[in-house]
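hey so i finaly got around to running the thing on OmpA family protein from Corallococcus aberystwythensis. pasting the sequence first so u can double check i didnt mess up the copy paste, my clipboard has been acting weird all day
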Amino acid sequence: MRRISLWAGLALAVAVMTGCPPTYPKCNNDEQCQEKGEVCVQGQCQECATDANCREGFTCQANKCAPKPPECTTDTACGTGRICEAGKCAEAQCKDDSACNGGKCQAGRCQAPKDTCSASTDCGEGQECQSGKCVTADASSKCDYSPVPFGFNESTLDSSAQSRLGELAACIKASQGKITLGGHADERGTEEYNLQLSNRRAAAVKRYLVDLGVPGNRLSTVGYGETRPVSSAATEEGWSENRRVEFQR
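ok and heres what it spat out for the 3d tokens, dont ask me to read them lol
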């Protein structure tokens, strides 16, 4: 019995002398903070002690990793012959216009000529993109105003119709005047239903053109139902010709 008490007392003495591991966030060394991905700083587990404890692009501030401030925010901070790009100082893109392929060198950067373009949307009102240059559009004479076809009982635009309207929108914006969108349906179905369907088709075309930037006040819609067929043939080919939206100028 005395021998057991002696060993228990000895174990207690060793524990007191060596001490138990401190409870997080207290610490004696970095190993006790590793589980949290931290380091021991003055007896406390912290996110960092120096910049080396932070990932690239971050710096240690008040024992917390914070994004490094940008090297620059303006060209002035970078000195002569250098410019500020994405928060870092870099060599200027140009010294004079000769390095800009027809553009202008302004404050160390190449500026494209105002009349260059990659698409008509890059050009101003009344212009279109031709061979990389913005030129005055010969508006309505080049617009494809052929009817937009629809599937049976459909009032949504398929990919082919969307592509055509995408081209037509730029042409309409470059021209003048108002356009009436006339919706039509084939003879199948009731007269009332076909009238509603033709109105929905006209509205779908207008909505798509407006989304592409055509002013809504230049477009009006009307539904004719089945009353104005272009084909009298009671065949699929004839019916498909009658399912359409026409552009009336």
